[in-house]
Design brief:
CATH topology of the largest domain: Jelly Rolls
Distance between the termini: 29 Å
CATH architecture of the largest domain: Sandwich
Strand content: 35-45%
Number of domains: 2
Largest sheet: 6 strands, antiparallel
Shape: globular
Radius of gyration: 21 Å
CATH class of the largest domain: Mainly Beta
Helix content: under 10%
Number of strands: 22
């Protein structure tokens, strides 16, 4: 996929044509790019004439080594009180629906930055560009001096009408000069450039089906609920040597009031047989038996959250691969399927190394 992106980056040179409020008919090159990408393209990657706000100075630059041949260079004269004090907004052409997954991929590099490591700082989010500027997919990134493709992804929490959605690049985290190049926005995919290397499955999952979610990608998980906190930690003895530590502040009225939604990368059809596996352990808990608890459920992330396969599992202090085999009871469109981990059973601290979703293939 990276090769395909590079090819189209060379073909889709930046233009100064104003971006329309509604999508115009696509050129053959844009349609070819959409066909090559996972999900559905919802912006015009040929455009970089984005509005700048907050006192930053911007100019279009051309560079042979920039993907697409050009970039928007933004000079931030000083760090702001808030990172969003200076930024640029890249328009999204399509409306966005609540529960829809939107992923942004963009090339960027830092020319200079007054930071400890010399890297620039960009906070990226997808937002409704009218007050109160509600948004999602908030991701803060350290931008190095070489051109690199960066990503941010998240699930929309509300509907955003066509013409109001933008990718917000917030730049006031430092006095800096940054160049932002070709930007691609899709809906319905957790990653635009998946790893070329197929992920290794734990031996216990061998032969149980085809992997249909993106593993080793906790940044694509959606955490929700008041007071739920998380941080990356080392996870010695696990395949990835890293995990997401999640702290549940207390027992909730319902376990589903606090949790994590892990995106499934494909559509599901009624009757599909799925194996869901979670590699996890409990750091601490206030449950009577000293075991952490997770409710696992496959669900549609919209319209009342219908789902199936709900099961409460216990998690001890040592790493364990918890498995659930279930059958789909409804169709779920691509981009709306999730594995829900409901965590509000008790005040507890859990570490989750990975979540795997496999679909059994019919016998030939």
């Amino acid at each position: 996929m990276r090769g395909k992106l590079a090819i189209f980056a060379a073909a889709l040179l930046c233009s100064a044509t104003p971006l329309l409020a509604a999508p115009a008919p696509r050129s053959p090159a844009l349609q070819a790019l959409d066909d090559a990408l996972p999900g559905t393209l919802i912006n015009d990657p040929t455009k970089l004439d984005w509005p700048v706000f907050g006192g930053g100075a911007a100019k279009a630059v051309k560079s042979a080594d920039a993907p697409g041949g050009g970039a928007l260079q933004v000079n931030v004269p000083r760090a702001g009180s808030n990172i969003y004090d200076v930024g640029v907004n890249a328009p999204i052409l399509a409306p966005i629906s609540a529960g829809q997954r939107v992923t942004v991929a963009f090339y960027a590099r830092t020319l200079k930055a007054e930071t400890a490591d010399g890297n620039g700082v960009i906070a990226v989010r997808v937002q409704q560009n009218v007050a109160p500027y509600a948004g999602f997919a908030d991701t803060k990134l350290s931008i190095g001096p070489q051109w690199k493709l960066y990503e941010a992804t998240g699930l929309a929490e509300r509907d955003i009408p066509a013409g109001q959605a933008v990718v917000g690049f917030q730049l006031a985290g430092a006095k800096q000069t940054i160049e932002i190049g070709q930007t691609i926005v899709v809906e319905g995919a957790a990653s635009i450039v998946p790893s070329a290397k197929a992920p290794e499955l734990p031996p216990l999952l061998g032969g149980k089906g085809r992997l249909i979610n993106t593993v080793n990608a906790p940044e694509s998980w959606a955490l929700y609920g008041p007071g739920l906190a998380s941080k990356p930690v080392e996870a010695r003895g696990t395949p990835g040597l890293a995990a997401l530590q999640v702290s549940v502040p207390g027992k909730a009225a319902h376990p589903y009031d606090l949790g994590i939604n892990v995106p499934i990368g494909e559509a599901l059809e009624e009757g599909d047989i799925l194996s869901v596996a979670v590699l996890a352990r409990t750091v601490s808990t206030e449950s009577p038996d000293g075991l952490g608890r997770i409710t696992l459920r496959v669900q549609k992330n919209a319209d009342g959250y219908p789902g199936f396969g709900e099961n409460v599992v216990t998690v001890g202090p040592t790493w364990k691969l918890i498995q659930l085999r279930t059958q789909a009871r409804l169709d779920i469109p691509k981009g709306l399927g999730t594995v829900a981990l409901h965590l509000g059973h008790a005040k507890q601290v859990l570490e989750i190394e990975n979540v795997y979703v496999l679909k059994e293939e019919p016998a030939p």
